[in-house]
Amino acid sequence: MKVIVIGNGMVGYKFCEKLRSMADTGTELIVFGEEPRPAYDRVHLTSYLDGKTADDLLLADLQWYKDNNIILHTGDPVTRIDRHRKTVHTLDGKAETYDYLVMATGSAPFVPPVPGIHKKGVFVYRTIEDLDAIRAYAANAKAGIVIGGGLLGLEAAKALLDLQVPESFVVEFSSRLMPRQIDEQGSAILENKLNTLGIKVLTNRNSSEVLGENEVTGLAFTDGSSVNADIIIVSAGIKPRDELALQAGLTLGPRGGILVNDRMQTSDPEIFAIGECALHNQMIYGLVAPGYDMAAVAAATILGEEKAFTGFDMSTKLKLIGVDVASFGDPFPLPHTCHSIVFEDRFTGVYKRLNITPDGTRLLGGILIGDAADYNMLLQTTKNSMPLPANPSELLTGAKKDGDANSAAVTGLPDDAIICSCESVSKGRICGAVTAGLETFDDVKKATKAGSCCGGCAPMVKDLITATMKAEGRYIRNVICEHFAYSRQEMLDLIKVKALRSFDEVIDAYGHGDGCEVCKPVVASILASLWNELILDKGNDTAQDSNDRYLANIQKGGTYSVVPRIPGGEITPEKLIVIGQVAVKYNLYTKITGGQRIDLFGAHLSDLPFIWEELIEAGFESGHAYGKALRTVKSCVGSTWCRFGLHDSVSFAIQIEERYRGLRAPHKIKSAVSGCIRECAEAQSKDFGIIATEKGWNLYVCGNGGSKPQHAKLLASDIDSETCIKYIDRFLMFYIKTADPLTRTATWLNKLDGGMDYLHNVVVNDSLGIAAELEAAMQNLVDHYKCEWKEVVESPELRKRFSHFINAPEEKDPTVKFEKMRDQKRAAEWK
Amino acid sequence: MSVIETSITWFYACNTTDVPTNGGVCVKLAEEQIALYYFARRNEWFATQNMCPHRQQMALSRGMTGTVKDEPKVACPFHKKTFSLLDGRCISDDAESSITVYPVKVIDDRVYIGIAKELMEV
């Protein structure tokens, strides 16, 4: 059998993939594509202007076609179909016979017949070549217009934004943006968001003429108004590429599109049409997911299997210019057939509309703008006619949204619920893959293809994996690595019971082999958390992560940075001068850190002991910036100077920083103290943060900045300093005892069974009866604190470790290079 | 017929006690930087180029040593790429270049690193 595919777009490619995956190797498969390159991801086309290359966007490279025995002719469009001889003819003059022909010719942008639309500076938005042309032309553009406020139009507006065109307009004929997906209220929220990004939206505008002599200078509207611009992108919709079908005498729809039946057969049963060129049940589908479904149906039919395309849900979730926009089920049913619950927050730009049946039991569809986190669940609730909670507005506010509620929700779905609509993968298949032994998202993705296209269903797939494993009573043993069959918490208990003091003792007692870069730092950190002995002693130096091993942070080029401790961010002028003098003497780049300290960069390994000798002489000590340890306790100036300050936040910050300095933990720990509710020290973004109140202090825990910011939660309010320290002792030791390696307090809390209520009970109410033990353990660490740099500086044996060449200790690494920048030095860029 | 003959020249690097147990040091041999590792638990010595090929940093001697399924390896301190000390291949990333490995021998307390010279005879 010989199959020819016309068109190598996303859907044409998917047809090849489906045909080959259906255990079919005997079929000859030949593809003709009009574009110069193999099929690429048109959905993410805009990312091409945002740093992705054409190669990044390829769905599969040429090798894939070879491996799958597919002959691909790119840049050679089919120009004629001879149905009589069952032969196609191409522009290059090739002729090829077929048994079955699949037309995946896609669509072309619809360009409205506005006078002047062919002037220089008017573009369409569909191919990589279009984007190249737009990029070249937009370089000098001061203002741009997008004609069309649908999905693609907003993508094009994003392109203008990425190309840094200073001013841009989206022009829409109807009264709102994305008229097929969202309502007026939703459109208003979206328009607001776009405005803040510098994109102006003009609705109810009908273009009358493209202005300009030869090149575009603006666009005039039928209402007499006009807008100046030097580039116009037209994305006013699509028209199916049906000209080849027309010439071949296939039946087309009255307004275009190749007519197909449920098996994707055209009026000639040996010719199929799939994707945007096909007209099914009076619908042209302009989305990729239904096109993929059609590809699967056509492949099955050709191989003699029973499969039908019965229409497709047009639910969709996208990130448009950074704004979540989703529309599912029936976004706007007739008023008397439903009740709508609407939530709108103009301040944060969130709009949600849920349409429910008049009796309030079923969800019909809805619209989500600004926050589409619940899209998957709402879509499944709609599709599977799942019963709604007694108070359906809970669906909007997400009143119950912890992990348990999520997994309960996914287990409630029927087995045939389609979780990944791009690849039409059901819940049953995903759970089946887990039952068959797969445990990770990546493995399940590989096996089922769920989550491999747009990725929108990934969170739900992960929930399903967890829920299935839980339901089967499978327990993933949380072991450190191949050398230790224990979790970090188990290791800590074992090491403590046996009072082990070195990595070698620990691996001899509880592990096997030699250790590795995963378990060594974990064990080293546990030893430090338990005994607080010098981390470079007892052969533990080589078990430390590199930064801990050299008590400094390695930087580009192999030099180190030095951060002396400046408790609470308070420093005398004399000490500031010393830092300056040291920096000058050792030629160091200086920068103020985010934690109210000073970082000195570009120190050679062999200079470190000398630098520290001088710093220690002046009264400094290690800042532990290199360790998974307490970093900094930031403070605002507090009541000693500030007219609003309630208490002396600086003194309390210093007291706390000096108490916990050097404390080794599963991850770094940051803290802050604010002198009043204005919160200038940003204590609520820290692992533990303290804010002064009229009556004492409020203690917050488990906050985080960084890539996943999370506000700290209130642990205790209006407590005195002594109680505050007692609670911090318990909190930190409980964290150190129970957290997984490299887990910040915020993540630890998120995973902790029982969450904040449980933590509050342990720390404040002593529900486990371990409070005294935790406090004693902390006091022991506090009592054993020593500045590790002081110990190194005073030990000739340890100092010897700080040289680049073992056989030429006086020489520095000759490959280290610096460049000049703003009167200081910087590391040479690496290759 | 051509015969490739390899001759190894042994260079003195340092004494055994200069190298931290289960760790590495950097040895300067002529203008080359060579990383030397001592696996005290197995009493084995290994040597590789000091430069990590990923970002061309002179860093492997400061990396953490260990094993994977009993194969000795070193992890670069910069981005944790790991390399086999037996054949120099990058274990953590198939696309990364391999590193050069050198033979090591210990005579009394003195450690020697062998540099191969290829001599071609026709």
From TrEMBL, chain A:
Domain BFD-like [2Fe-2S]-binding positions: 418-465
InterPro entries according to UniProt: BFD-like_2Fe2S-bd_dom, BFD-like_2Fe2S-bd_dom_sf, FAD/NAD-bd_sf, FAD/NAD-binding_dom, FAD/NAD-linked_Rdtase_dimer_sf, NasD-like, NiRdtase/SiRdtase_haem-b_fer, Nit/Sulf_reduc_fer-like_dom_sf
Binding site for [4Fe-4S] cluster: 636, 642, 676, 680
Gene Ontology MF annotations: 2 iron, 2 sulfur cluster binding; 4 iron, 4 sulfur cluster binding; flavin adenine dinucleotide binding; heme binding; metal ion binding; NADP binding; nitrite reductase activity
Annotated ranges, domain FAD/NAD(P)-binding: 1-289
Record pathway: Nitrogen metabolism; nitrate reduction (assimilation)
Keywords assigned by UniProt, alphabetized: 2Fe-2S, 4Fe-4S, FAD, Flavoprotein, Heme, Iron, Iron-sulfur, Metal-binding, Nitrate assimilation, Oxidoreductase
Family as reported in the entry's similarity comment: Belongs to the nitrite and sulfite reductase 4Fe-4S domain family.
Protein name: Assimilatory nitrite reductase (NAD(P)H) large subunit
From TrEMBL, chain B:
The keyword Aminoacyl-tRNA synthetase is assigned to this record: no
Gene3D superfamilies, alphabetized: Rieske [2Fe-2S] iron-sulphur domain
Transmembrane regions listed in the UniProt entry: none
InterPro entries xrefs: NasD-like, Rieske-like_NirD, Rieske_2Fe-2S, Rieske_2Fe-2S_sf
Keywords: 2Fe-2S, Heme, Iron, Iron-sulfur, Metal-binding, Nitrate assimilation, Oxidoreductase
GO molecular function, one term: metal ion binding
Biological process annotations from GO: nitrate assimilation
Residues of the Rieske domain: 11-113
Protein name: Assimilatory nitrite reductase (NAD(P)H) small subunit
Record organism: Chitinophaga jiangningensis
